[in-house]
């Protein structure tokens, strides 16, 4: 068996180093799952937001816009519209509506803000794990390396002669932990930065839509 083979190094590592490698492997697998899932989720949200905003400005029938919003629920902007539409429907059925225009607008604004907070939280879900992996994984791997080197030096002290042939595998076992830590951290950091940028675009779209929606409500529904 090749003493410097990956599986051989893992198999002959100390229990602590093996535990570190297992933790890093779990973090890496979880990170790749999150990357794949969030990529599909954010891409769909962006696509449906584009479709809904286009429909919102093209159509003059609010019922038609409402039906489109129901079909595009992955869009955070669409969800905001549904929340505002629901609140507007409540106000329209209230005989007191229109007597206090500012209070009515505040109610709609609160419903929009609540929906925006919910959608932002949903977009950001699981993303902090990538940041944690990116910052912690190299240090976890470094801990495994330091521990492995300490164990190796203790073993060297008990041997009468130390040669490169018996030193290399033990040092390689220790360094493997740092390598796995970097393998887990680098994709996580890159994905985290990518998702933060994409989510910021969606949040900006929600903020712009909030102002546009309120302006339309002021002009056409709460005169």
Q: Spell the H/E element sequence.
A: HHHHHHH
Structural class: mainly alpha
Alpha-carbon distance between the two ends = 83 Å
What does the overall shape look like? rod-shaped
Number of strands: 0
Helix content: over 70%
Low-confidence stretches: none
> What's the number of structural domains?
1
Total helices: the number is 7
Which range does the strand content fall in?
Answer: under 5%
| Cα radius of gyration in angstroms | 28 Å
The largest sheet, given as strand count, sense and whether it forms a barrel, is: none
Q: Give the overall average pLDDT.
A: 85
Structure write-up:
There is one protein chain. The protein is mostly helical and 223 residues long. The chain has one domain. It contains seven helices and no strands. Helix 2 runs parallel beside helix 7, helix 3 packs across helix 4 and helix 4 packs antiparallel against helix 5. The longest helix is centred in the last third of the chain and has 57 residues. The model has no long low-confidence stretch (mean pLDDT 85).
């Amino acid at each position: 068996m090749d003493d410097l083979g990956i599986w051989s190094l893992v198999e002959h590592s100390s229990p602590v180093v093996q535990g570190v490698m297992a933790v890093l492997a779990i973090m890496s697998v979880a990170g790749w799952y999150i990357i794949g899932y969030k990529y599909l989720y954010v891409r769909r949200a962006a696509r449906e937001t584009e479709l809904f905003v286009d429909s919102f400005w093209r159509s003059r029938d609010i019922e038609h816009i409402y039906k489109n919003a129901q079909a595009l629920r992955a869009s955070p902007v669409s969800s905001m519209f549904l929340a505002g539409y629901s609140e507007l429907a409540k106000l329209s059925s209230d005989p007191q509506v229109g007597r206090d225009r500012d209070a009515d607008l505040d109610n709609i604004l609160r419903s929009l803000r609540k929906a925006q907070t919910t959608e932002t939280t949903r977009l950001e879900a699981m993303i902090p794990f990538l940041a944690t992996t990116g910052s912690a994984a190299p240090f976890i791997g470094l801990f495994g390396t330091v521990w492995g080197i300490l164990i190796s030096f203790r073993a060297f002290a008990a041997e009468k002669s130390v040669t490169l042939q018996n030193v290399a595998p033990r040092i390689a076992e220790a360094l493997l932990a740092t390598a796995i830590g970097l393998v887990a951290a680098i994709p996580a950091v890159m994905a985290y930065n990518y998702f933060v940028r994409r989510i910021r675009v969606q949040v900006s779209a929600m903020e712009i839509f909030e102002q546009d929606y309120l302006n339309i409500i002021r002009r056409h529904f709460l005169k």
